[in-house]
Structure prediction request, 611 residues.
Amino acid sequence: MLKYVIKRILLMIPVLIIMSLFVFMIFYFAPGDPVSRIAGPNATPEVYESIKKKYGLDQPFIVQYLRFAKSVIEGDLGISILQERPVIEMIRERLPVTLQIGLLGFLVTFAIAIPAGVIAAVKKNTAVDYLCMTGSLVGIAIPTFWLGMLLLYVFAYKLRWFPISGDGTARQLVLLSFAIGLTNAAITARMVRSSMLEILKQDYVRTARSKGLSEKIVVYRHALKNALIPVITLMGLRLGWIIGGSVALEIIFSIPGIGRLLVDSILARDYPVVQGAMIVLTSSIILANVLADILYTVVDPRIRYS
Amino acid sequence: MYQGKDVEIYAGKKLLEGEEEKAKELEKKNVLGDFIKRLFRHKGAVIGIIIIFLFIFTAVFAPWLTSYSYDKPDISVMLKAPCREHIFGTDEFGRDIFTRIVFGARISLKVAFISVVFSLVIGTILGAVAGYYGGVVDYVISSITDIAWSFPTTLLAIAFIAALGTGLENVIIAIVLASWSGYCRVVRGQFLSLKEREFVEAARVLGMSDARIIFRHILPNSVTPVVVMATLELPKAIVIEASLSFLGLGAQPPLPSWGVILDSGKGLLEQAPWISLFPGLMIMLVVLGFNLFGDALRDVLDPKS
Prediction:
């Protein structure tokens, strides 16, 4: 067990290296000359040269990369070209909001997907099942950012239950998290249903039933626990999807999260910020995947990796 | 020259070959006929096909479906709610939303088909090479594939746009670079299991070249999962294009990409909700159509079902 956990964590290292190389290349190969991007169009040749030296842009690719990697490990993500302050500081301001969105999004996902998936599985091939699965089919097809706009229109503009523009309060985040949670729930409900169906076929469920246990106890005590195990791993993978989806939603709800920082910086060509945001987002996705894998083995003692 | 018995054997062989070919053709026809019959008996497939056909029809015949221009402003009809002349209403420049959506279908489908074809080709070739040759080649390819695959496509595409710059061509490149890994994984898996089979062994013994074995013998046997996957990747590409354009990273106004229309509707949500309502509805419909068709294709093509 411990061996597997250590191995899984060590395996993260090459992934992180490739990821950082990729993020570095975004900056390196981005259109336009990086020096004049920093120096501005009206820089004198002297300023140009000094900036080239200062940022180490006269060095070969591999040296530049190693320097970049070293500073990232030290927690230094560079200085924003636009705002002229440390990127890490800007990210630290924005990250909590995005984390809250992710957390609330998962809460909404589970609150909808688990009951819907379980009911659909228990009442397989009945009207309830068809209703749940049709709902999930439609839910998967709805673009998250459009759903966000619909919710904003109905609940903020028409019903006035929620504030219209982003004040960063928890109330605003609720609406946004519903947008992201609903679509995610549509996919998750299908997973819960098929996982549940698989479990309900197992011998131990039949044993529990034949012992005379009530259907409720069989389903919720015995089957559900086991049915949720594969769902956990998939939730690790869904974190990335939630982050990707929250980029557009943060813009619609004008909430200052890290996704909006990313897009604004791409449009403004503030590459150090783009790199910083990408590094933070991708590392958290990698970490989430590894944690989900480890959690999977903890929850399910039958699984042993050598 | 054939003599006596030899002639008989030769003739018999020819006869047999002829019969075999006939039987093969018959079987092919049957398989295809059976496939189409089963597909059309599948409710989801039929609904999916109808939706997809409607959108392709709209995209192809866009100029004939409307009398308005998608980019010419008309200040006399600014922000009109849906009415008889403008069934989906007009935007802040007085442009007909229906017209913009109809022409937007061209952009959506074009981006989706081109990007899926390219990512399919790249992913399939890499997966075939990795699965067939194994060893170090496989290790390198599948490590990169696994990493690329573990990131959400939208986020990857945004990262590539950061490097490439905005615009529709770059959206296509970004989607290709962000989505080839799925095909690679599937094809590699297929090759790993198929290359140990007798018919591949036989082809190798006969001295066929690797390329011939890969393309003529193994690849045709792994077409099914790739086709299903491609069908399900098309709607994803449509959504990514719309999202990127919505964020200002893809198609630029006045191009009528559905994402661009949604972006312009975002600020006018209170005064003119119809600008945002219809393009989103179209995205939902077309995605639903492809998903229904893709799921049905998987059910029908899966021999286990």
